[in-house]
């Protein structure tokens, strides 16, 4: 039957005016595409190795995720990237909030990207766990560096214990190195154990300080000064220049009293102005000089190897301890034994061994 274009009948539903979709079509299409575009492991790895920052970011999101399937996928990506990692200089930057860590990293970062280095900036900020608010993450940070095509700025994972954040940061370092970033800054804030954690994952540990805050050695724990490979008095500008130079001399004298580093490196004290870009070249020269000496004397490899071995033991200790405390028998017995301990029925040593006996008997079953 020939079709009559103008045919109209009660049985025929004529086309009405098309209604706009209740969902924005562009968005829904994008969502469908996004759903379809789950990357394969090969795509992740190839993307990372070719320096694709969007794919690198996606892989980091997997590392930060708490979903078990993301974790497994992330582990496979990390394993494949491992052979391409390890080639960067890892620099830890610490100092009290407000000392100028972000400004300094932005300034030295720009200095380095202009010299064709590729910079990644990561952060370890357990303050979010302690104070329920992040010190590093909430600020608009490193505006120039974060739009620099040779830089990659990633805030600290917002959830998790310091141990968890540290593990994730180490894994992110591997991916960033595989993506070709040759200088990695890891910023942290002087809260709790975070400096010690960051120290355990870097080649150069830099302490930023302020001048003229009363007793020059107050506020910063002695241990942190002992751990540092270099100190820089920031904000050496305007009226602050003389004070900064005095502080520099005082710290330099104080450092001479500390035991020598095994590597023969003598930690240096410099001044800089992150805002005015002064002393930034010298800051980089110090780090580069340290790196050269460490590589020449074999300490670079030695330190990295030691860090790897420590990490293996840390992981074993952590896993065993979690397994112990999550054991149902231990969960039941813990309070009872604690009570007996407080009633002087057992010594702390005996109490611990009673619990360990329960645990080992249970896992031997
Ligand atoms: P962070 O908390 O350690 O990361 O410190 P920021 O980089 O956010 O800096 C804290 C404040 O100090 C900001 O207002 C900066 O503008 C300022 N600041 C940072 N570096 C310098 C510097 O070299 N000189 C001066 N005068 N101010 C600075």
Task: Give the helix/strand layout.
Blueprint: H1 25-36, H2 41-49, H3 53-64, H4 68-81, E1 89-94, H5 101-113, E2 119-124, H6 127-131, H7 143-146, E3 151-153, H8 162-178, E4 183-188, H9 194-199, E5 204-209, H10 222-227, E6 230-233, H11 241-256, E7 268-271, H12 280-297, H13 299-325, H14 328-342, H15 348-364
Parallel strand pairs: 1-4, 1-5, 2-3, 2-4, 5-6, 6-7
Helix pairs in contact: 2-4, 3-4, 3-8, 5-12, 14-15
Overview of the structural elements:
The protein is an alpha/beta fold. It has 3 domains: about 40-85, Up-down Bundle (Single alpha-helices involved in coiled-coils or other helix-helix interfaces), CATH 1.20.5; about 85-295, P-loop containing nucleotide triphosphate hydrolases (Rossmann fold); about 325-365, no CATH class. It is built from 15 helices and 7 strands. The protein has helices spanning about 25-35, 40-50, 55-65, 70-80, 100-115, 125-130, 145, 160-180, 195-200, 220-225, 240-255, 280-295, 300-325, 330-340, 350-365; strands at about 90-95, 120-125, 150-155, 185-190, 205-210, 230-235, 270. The protein has a 7-stranded parallel β-sheet, sandwiched between helices. Helix 14 (about 330-340) packs antiparallel against helix 15. It starts with about 25 loop residues before the first helix and ends with a helix. The structure holds guanosine-5'-diphosphate. Guanosine-5'-diphosphate binds near residues 102, 235 and 273.
Biggest sheet strand order reads: 3-2-4-1-5-6-7
Work out the number of β strands: 7
Please tell me the CATH architecture of the largest domain by its name: 3-Layer(aba) Sandwich
CATH superfamily assignment of the largest domain?
Answer: P-loop containing nucleotide triphosphate hydrolases
What is the CATH topology classification name of the largest domain?
Rossmann fold
Measured between the Cα atoms of the first and last residue, the distance is 82 Å
Using the CA coordinates, give the radius of gyration: 28 Å
Q: Helix fraction?
A: 40-55%
């Amino acid at each position: 039957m020939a079709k009559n274009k103008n045919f109209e009948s009660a049985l025929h539903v004529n086309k009405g005016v098309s209604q706009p979709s209740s969902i924005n079509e562009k968005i829904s299409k994008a969502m469908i595409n996004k759903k379809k575009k789950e990357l394969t492991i090969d795509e992740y790895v190839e993307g990372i190795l070719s320096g694709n920052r969007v794919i690198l970011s996606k892989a980091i999101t997997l590392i930060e995720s708490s979903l078990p399937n993301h974790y497994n996928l992330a582990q496979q990506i990390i394993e494949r990237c491992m052979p391409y990692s390890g080639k960067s200089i890892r620099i830890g930057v610490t100092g009290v909030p407000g000392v100028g860590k972000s400004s300094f990293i932005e300034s030295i970062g720009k200095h380095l990207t202009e010299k064709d280095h590729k910079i990644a900036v990561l952060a370890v900020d357990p303050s979010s766990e302690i104070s329920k608010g992040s010190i590093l993450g909430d600020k608009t940070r490193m505006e120039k560096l974060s739009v620099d095509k040779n830089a990659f700025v990633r805030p600290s994972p917002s959830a998790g214990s310091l141990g968890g954040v540290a593990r994730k940061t180490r894994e992110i370092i591997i991916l960033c190195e595989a993506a070709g970033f040759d200088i990695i800054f890891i910023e942290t804030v002087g809260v709790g154990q975070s400096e010690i954690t960051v120290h355990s994952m870097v080649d150069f540990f830099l302490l930023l300080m302020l001048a003229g805050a009363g007793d020059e050695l107050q506020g910063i724990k002695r241990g942190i000064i002992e751990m540092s490979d270099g100190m820089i008095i920031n904000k050496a500008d305007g009226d602050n220049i003389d004070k900064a130079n005095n502080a520099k001399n005082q710290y330099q004298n104080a450092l001479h009293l500390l035991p020598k580093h095994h590597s023969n490196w003598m930690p240096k004290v410099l001044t800089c102005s992150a805002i005015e870009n002064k002393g930034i070249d010298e800051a980089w020269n110090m780090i580069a000089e340290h790196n050269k000496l460490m590589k020449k004397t074999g300490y670079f490899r030695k330190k990295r190897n030691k860090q790897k071995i420590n990490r293996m033991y840390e992981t074993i200790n952590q896993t065993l301890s979690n397994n112990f405390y999550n054991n149902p028998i231990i969960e039941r017995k813990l309070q009872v034994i604690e009570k007996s301990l407080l009633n002087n029925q057992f010594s702390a040593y005996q109490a611990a061994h009673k619990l360990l006996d329960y645990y080992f008997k249970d896992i031997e079953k």
